Amino acid sequence: MKSKTSYFNKALFLSQLNRFWPLYTAYFVIWLLIVPVALNTRLSLAFTPRDIIYATSTTGAYLLRAGYVGGMFMSAIFGIFFAMAAFHWLYTGRGVSLMASAPVKREGLFISVFTPGLVFMLLSNIIMFLLALAVGAAYGLALIGYAAQMLAMMCLLNLFFYGFACLCAMLTGHILVLPAIYAILNFTAVVFLSLLYNMLDRFSYGLYSNALESNSAFTSFSPAAHLILRTSVPAVITKDLAGIEKVTGASYTGWNYLFVLGAVGLVMAFLALLLLRRRRMESAGDVVAVRPLRPVFKYCLTIGCAVVLGICLYEIIYDRTLTSVAAYYICAFAAVGAFVGYFAGEMLLEKTLRVFSGANFKKWGLVAALCVGLILAMDFDLFGFERRVPELSEIDNVYLSDIGEATQLNEPEEIEFVRQLHASIISHKALNENPNYDDGVVAVRFDYELKNGSHVQRRYTLNIDASDDAQALQDFLNTPEMILRRKLPERPVAKENMDTGWVEFYNLEKHEYESIEITQEQAYELYTECILPDMQDGNIGQAWILRTDDKEYTQFFYDLHISLSFSWLRDALESQPGDTKSLVLDPLGNERFVWGLNVNATLDSARTNAWLRENLDIEPVTREVSEGDMQARMYSATDFEYK
């Protein structure tokens, strides 16, 4: 009988299931706890048959979150475990010899050991889908749409993370290196970008380390970070015939990204198959199994250590920012980091400690020189990062923040003022680069959102007495238009949107601070009839960003603070709120926008001051009076104790 090679081996398939059934069972059991058990617990505690639509939408939101958050964690963790189980034989000489001698082509080997993990994950997902439907049906809820979306999320994430893990398995010949490579490559984009900005923050004027938040193009290459930071499950809000808003569903915002991940996962699995076909089986035990990738590994490790150790050593030894010599310290520490990375990589690749040769010192020197050259180029701003101010035609809008409430500007004349202020601050770099906190500083952050969707973000600390920039910024912020832009909610305010109201003030008769909670009706009246007109006149809501110990400040502002809170149900089509708003869950589980209005009464806020006197019997006093009273009482108490 003529023999033939096979592209699938049933014995290998069953052997994988038999040997690693505890791992597969753990995946199944954890999903049991996440989906049917947790779902039943939630419904048994919070289910209200009177509102099936609301119960269905909140339960559906849980299934969607379980699908993309739970699916991400489960796929990422078990994906690498299943890949290690599938290809463990690649990492020992005996295992490789045994599998290579089997009458199965390498394609057959790959398919036979790759499919058990994938098939088991997909079958488990289908079972979770059916159990979710069963639990929902037990409570009278039709969850098929949400459960189907959860199933799709789980499967797409399985494809990506398992395919990615299998591709990583082909890149190394050491089983302990496999999870390290997998973890590093999953987070390389966000970690490297964070470290780069952290380094630039030390010596590049205006750049700051948390600019990562606006670089969605980079987070897309780190799926776990992107799914958590860039996608969400907002509620779907509709209005009934009476105009009352209700939660009627939930949706997911990251479907396009998930489909891309699934497709990329399939491509990675195919690449893993191609690499296995050409893999040198004697590479078992090597850190890098693919020879063309050996220099890539070494130089990536060198550059990575230069950045990481450069920052760490700088923080430990020098620990200062924005000084004229910061870049030179980082250059020295980056060279040390490059030395560690280069020779550590060479030792791992050659499996020997005898790597300190003249040729290797030259190669390390070239990489270190490249790192140092790039750092110095950025320090001298050869790339124009520090000097860049976007053109007016490029800008869609700009946010001003770190000055109290964030302010969004989109009118051309407003944006042009910000551009001119930004350029003036850059021209005064020498005056502001070393902040003088004793004499007073002002922080300001610019976030330009460009018409192409990208962002340019800069942050500066200005010495108050060094230039007129801080005063110009304060004058601009305190125009009536800017006060309203900064303080007003983005939605119309009705009485039902008022949540809480508090007035905190210094009681001169009692010589202490007091707080009074006002009713919804009082808060609405105070806001609409007093605070809003006073803001329109520019008499309340000012931003005082200069030194607060100035006489002008203490004589103008009353020591009286008003806090009002508004909220609206969140519509599924709306974006995540900005810096001055937050998203919270109310007692019924609805997602709501919350806007807080905080103002201090002033000598000019006549309407507000009159309302406080008439309705709350408050006689406000200026900060100069309250501070003087407290200081006098402190001295009096000290004198009494002394006597």
Task: Tell me the overall shape.
Answer: flat
Number of domains: 4
Q: Strand order of the main beta sheet, please?
A: 8-7-9-11-10
Please give the alpha-carbon distance between the first and last residues.
Answer: 116 Å
Radius of gyration: 31 Å
pLDDT < 50 stretches: 572-581
Given helix and strand content, the structural type is alpha+beta
Strand content: 5-15%
Major β-sheet, in short? 5 strands, antiparallel
Q: What level of helicity do the residues show?
A: 55-70%
> Overall pLDDT, averaged?
84
Helix tally equals 21
Strand segment count: 11
Topology:
Layout: H1 10-19, H2 21-46, H3 52-86, H4 93-100, H5 106-138, H6 144-171, H7 177-203, H8 216-219, H9 223-230, E1 235-239, E2 245-250, H10 255-278, H11 294-318, H12 326-350, H13 358-379, E3 395-401, E4 407-409, H14 412-427, H15 429-432, E5 441-450, E6 455-463, H16 469-477, H17 480-487, E7 498-507, E8 512-518, H18 520-536, H19 551-556, E9 557-569, E10 581-585, E11 591-602, H20 606-616, H21 623-642
Antiparallel strand pairs: 1-2, 3-4, 3-5, 5-6, 7-8, 7-9, 9-11, 10-11
